[in-house]
Amino acid sequence: MAGARGLLAAAALLGFLQASSSFEVKDSSGKVCIIADLTVAFSVEYKSNGQKEFAHFFLPQNATVESQSSCGNGNKSHPILVLGFGAGHSLSLNFSEHADNYQVEELVFHYNLSDATLFHNSTAGEVKKVSHKTTIQAHMGTKYRCINAKHVNMKSVNITFSNVTLEAYLTNGTFSTNKTECAEDMVSTTAIVPTTPKQTTSQVPTTSPAPTASPPNPAVGKYNVTGPNGTCVLAYMGLQLNITYQKKDQKMGLDLLNFIPQNTTSSGRCDNTSAFLNLTFEKTRVIFYFVLNASTEKYFLQGVNVSTTLPSEAKDPKFEAWNNSMSELRATVGNSYKCSAEENLQVTDKALVNVFNVQIQVFKIDGDKFGAGKRFIFWGRT
Ligand SMILES: *[C@@H]1O[C@H](CO)[C@@H](O)[C@H](O)[C@H]1NC(C)=O
Ligand SMILES: *[C@@H]1O[C@H](CO)[C@@H](O)[C@H](O)[C@H]1NC(C)=O
Ligand SMILES: *[C@@H]1O[C@H](CO)[C@@H](O)[C@H](O)[C@H]1NC(C)=O
Ligand SMILES: *[C@@H]1O[C@H](CO)[C@@H](O)[C@H](O)[C@H]1NC(C)=O
Ligand SMILES: *[C@@H]1O[C@H](CO)[C@@H](O)[C@H](O)[C@H]1NC(C)=O
Ligand SMILES: *[C@@H]1O[C@H](CO)[C@@H](O)[C@H](O)[C@H]1NC(C)=O
Ligand SMILES: *[C@@H]1O[C@H](CO)[C@@H](O)[C@H](O)[C@H]1NC(C)=O
Ligand SMILES: *[C@@H]1O[C@H](CO)[C@@H](O)[C@H](O)[C@H]1NC(C)=O
Ligand SMILES: *[C@@H]1O[C@H](CO)[C@@H](O)[C@H](O)[C@H]1NC(C)=O
Ligand SMILES: *[C@@H]1O[C@H](CO)[C@@H](O)[C@H](O)[C@H]1NC(C)=O
Ligand SMILES: *[C@@H]1O[C@H](CO)[C@@H](O)[C@H](O)[C@H]1NC(C)=O
Ligand SMILES: *[C@@H]1O[C@H](CO)[C@@H](O)[C@H](O)[C@H]1NC(C)=O
């Protein structure tokens, strides 16, 4: 817990609010063979008057698909997506196929140190190149999906991908419906991956929104509950707790905690008209209580219970809060509730449960997949 809290305590972290951008490569007949929808964050170390400096920036949304991009030509050449941006920077994704899989075989990043907007006071002025193999891999005929951060660390450059949907060797001009999910998104994996890009704001990225005091968004986890008739709760969300508490010195403290999906266990139970989703992350537990109104065929979140152990400076480290008269996340049976913006669920005046990128379905779930009818709500945070 110290890890997650410590990270948040250093509140000068950049919220990961950068929108994804979508890029396409077409062959000479206009057929789309690569689509990539992704957020890319860069961290580059360079020298400035003998000092080590770091530049942090995102792949801008107006990056362009460069002419070196190609769909490949049989065995002679492989598909490649080259994205150019700023003053002579480019990121290449070189694809290859093997058996039933395709992968980003190599990632190549060219950066121009003479670009003073990114590399303030850089001593060197040349264009540098780094490259690395990646573990971005998917089954042929499926799209690759990875919401969580994937880091590629190279000498002097770290590249972090997130919210990625991409597919190469497309035959149909659009993303396949079937997908290959990355290990980072699988709740069951035991591998611990950093869930937030660690970015300090000592140098404000010129290509991203102005940093805010908000902590990084929590990683999206997948949680489910099995009832008598199969899956009865299926939830996809990032979860953050915001607790206001009194300290021993009578001052007020704020505890912001991001749930780490890999370290969160889900349990719960369902009957015909009520469902519990019980999420436990270390010493913190959040229970969501859903009810079904059988006559209107609608379900909603009626109750939330939060219990946690606060930092030792708290007057009372044992914290519990609940609210059983809520009316949130409403949807019709057979459909899912979806919201890509942050939602703040007010439990009490001391406790907020913030959910991010939520998609949730309760009670009737056909084939363990979200139903078609979705409710979208968007509102900005910026
Ligand atoms: C992921 O990208 C989609 C668009 O491709 C966007 O709507 C969504 O908000 C992004 N999610 C996050 C967590 O950035
Ligand atoms: C891309 O957007 C940035 C600001 O976000 C702007 O400074 C730059 O000129 C744009 N580049 C192109 C090629 O439009
Ligand atoms: C491509 O390579 C595969 C095996 O590596 C071979 O079977 C196939 O004939 C090659 N195709 C062409 C067009 O060279
Ligand atoms: C660049 O160098 C000048 C003089 O050496 C210094 O005043 C300035 O703060 C430096 N700028 C950055 C962004 O480091
Ligand atoms: C997509 O998934 C469905 C159901 O899992 C399967 O029947 C179908 O063969 C898959 N298609 C591809 C191209 O893998
Ligand atoms: C890359 O990540 C590693 C491990 O987190 C860190 O030690 C290193 O300083 C980072 N490098 C850059 C250029 O951000
Ligand atoms: C191609 O797309 C159409 C609709 O866009 C879909 O019905 C069809 O199943 C797709 N074919 C493949 C091979 O994915
Ligand atoms: C969630 O689904 C997985 C795979 O279907 C299953 O193994 C697991 O037991 C489920 N978890 C709960 C709490 O029902
Ligand atoms: C946390 O809660 C406090 C008090 O309700 C509020 O002022 C603050 O904006 C909240 N922060 C986040 C990140 O939700
Ligand atoms: C997740 O759990 C593992 C093993 O229980 C632990 O080693 C790791 O520190 C935890 N990660 C975080 C970020 O709390
Ligand atoms: C919630 O889960 C925790 C640990 O997994 C367990 O101790 C607790 O009894 C559960 N509560 C409910 C209501 O399922
Ligand atoms: C399970 O299915 C049976 C038969 O369709 C139904 O009568 C029962 O109410 C269902 N139970 C739950 C908890 O959904």
Automatic annotation (TrEMBL):
Region (Disordered) residue ranges read 196-218
* Disulfide bond residue pairs: C146-C182, C232-C270
Q: Give start and end of each Lysosome-associated membrane glycoprotein 2-like luminal domain.
A: 21-169, 218-365
List the GO biological process terms.
Answer: establishment of protein localization to organelle
Q: How does it sit in the membrane?
A: Single-pass type I membrane protein
Q: Which residues form the signal peptide?
A: 1-22
Q: What is its main location?
A: membrane
Record field: compositional bias (Low complexity): 196-211
Q: Give the top-rank taxon of the lineage listed in the UniProt record for this protein.
A: Eukaryota
Task: Give compartment(s).
Answer: Cell membrane; Cytolytic granule membrane; Late endosome membrane; Lysosome membrane
- May I have one GO cellular component term? plasma membrane
Q: Which UniProt keywords apply?
A: Cell membrane, Disulfide bond, Endosome, Glycoprotein, Lysosome, Membrane, Signal, Transmembrane, Transmembrane helix
State the InterPro entries in the record. Answer: Lamp2-like_luminal (IPR048528), LAMP_CS (IPR018134), Lysosome-assoc_membr_glycop (IPR002000)
Instruction: Give the PROSITE patterns listed for this entry.
Output: LAMP_1 (PS00310), LAMP_3 (PS51407)
**Family, similarity comment:** Belongs to the LAMP family.
Official protein name in the record: Lysosome-associated membrane glycoprotein 1
- What is the native source organism of this protein? Accipiter nisus
